[in-house]
Amino acid sequence: MGLALETIVGYVASGTGTTTYDALTPNANQSYTVRSYPDGSSAWLEDAWGATSAAQWLWSIKSPRLHDDVKGILMAVNAYTNTGSTVIFNPNTNLPGFLTQKLFSTDVLSVTALAATATNKFVGVMNVRYENLGGVNARLFHWNEIGPQIVNLVGIEVQPAASGTVGHFGTGVALNSVDQRLKANTDYAWLGYTCSIPVTALVMNGVDVGNLNVGGPGAYDSSSTGDFFVAQSLKYNTAHIPVVNSNNQGGTFISIADVTASTAPNVTLYFGELRNRLGNPSTP
Fold first, then answer.
1. Largest CA distance in the chain
2. Listed residue (245, 271, 195, 218) closest to 9, CA to CA
3. Structural domain for 106, as ranges
4. Does the pLDDT at position 282 exceed 80?
5. Is there a contact between 122 and 51 (Cβ–Cβ < 8 Å)?
6. pLDDT digits (tens, 9 = 90+) for 145-161
7. What 3-state class would DSSP assign to 117?
8. Domain membership flag for residue 280
């Protein structure tokens, strides 16, 4: 069973501020074409969130194979939050709760956004989950498989920085680039994370997650990120919790993309040390 999660990040570098929707540009090596998967399997759009540099935006995910190809799934994104002298560019969750959309193999999604004001910037992110993706077998597990296995919690610090270009991923940093306390040849479940300042998206990439970007929003509220993958597993009743072996930490990278340039948060990744090494998952 080739389980896979993929976090896809796109951006509008400068909105036109007209009544015309601007197309989002996906990051390098990413695409809005649904990956090919075999008949009898499924793929789902499970999460979508966005962040804006100023003013409000609307953004849309559509296709003739979804509800309609006019505006499709239309979502509103709030403006940034201004708290006195500090501006917080906090990502907005736009598909909350249990809202999901089935996607079709090789379908080309149109992802666009409408700016309220010209030159404003926008970053939109989506999580797509595949039940069976050829060539990928991410180590993703249910909470009821992970919870009983946890013997210790550990927080590992990393210091990724966003690109100097808005919406682009910055250079990834290895899981052990700052903090090298993971025990040798031990499996760890990635439960969630916290960021010292908000960023639009935080992802992990490495062999244990199928060499795809897997992550979530870097929101300021740790109650929504600290157990992010546990909550996803419980919410969707599917295997959502990534498991990483510590021997792979040097080749496992954390990256961020943001609606502001060169953001550099301190990030703490919450892991559960597992009693046993787990094999590959057997259920979606």
1. 56
2. 218
3. 4-130
4. no
5. yes
6. 999 999 999 999 999 99
7. coil
8. no
